[in-house]
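Can anyone check this?
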Amino acid sequence: MKNNLKIFLIVFLISLPFWWGVNVFHENMEKFFYQREITGNPSILASIAFQAELEERLEEMKPTRIRNYEDPEISARSAVSVLIDSQGKERILFEKNSQERMPIASLTKLMTAYVALKNYDLPEEMEKALYLALIESNNEAAISLARANGETAFIKSMNLEAESLGMENTFFINPTGLDGENGFNYSTVLDLAKFARHLTEEKHLILEISTLAEFENSVNTNRLLGEISGVVGGKTGETRKAGDCLLLIIQAPENNGHIINVLLSSENRFEEMKKLIDWIEHAYRW
């Protein structure tokens, strides 16, 4: 019995290389016939190429809109959400009256701060005014920034900067955004989104300042800083003519760039902004 077992083990060990070789041969033959089949059959090749191209294009189309997912009910007279993906491509996810010229209230102060930082060498005491204008939306701080080098020239610079950025439907008459006897500062949500995109591309200091919850004894007017994650920058605004205004830049889902959201003449800017951001997250496949 023991001799038979020894003989079996010896035969088994000797045969292992043979069976291994048979398996390898079988796998190689399968690969050979598969390659010969697809190379000799253009329709199969075309099908594989089409599938690969389709998958690539579907990936490029993301986020994809989910059909039958209803649009959000937004009371704001004008609104837009624009995705700037990680490749720099721009796509409108939601819009309402996006080209209508509207008063923009204290969203003005984003341009006030931009002109002040770009065109003037601010002394240390003026830096405090910059922070107060963006965080507390302080009107006196915005006026002091403009008057440091002449208010008329400053406002002219605001309009020149808007023009250079392609904001064709934007005009400023003051650095605060307050309603005036001679009119008000106006823009469109698309123009404001264009400006916000420029700020994100420059990774501008304005965005960093605008996301500070407080500065000295001043509290940020943007209540969403503690409620929404991934806020990159933003600004509030409110006057009798403009109603509730809010610009908010957030990181896009899956870390795919930024989403710029703008509401003008809203009845409740914070609740509507939360509704809009929630809708974007669920109305698209990311």
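Reply from J.R.: I decoded it. The mean pLDDT is 88.
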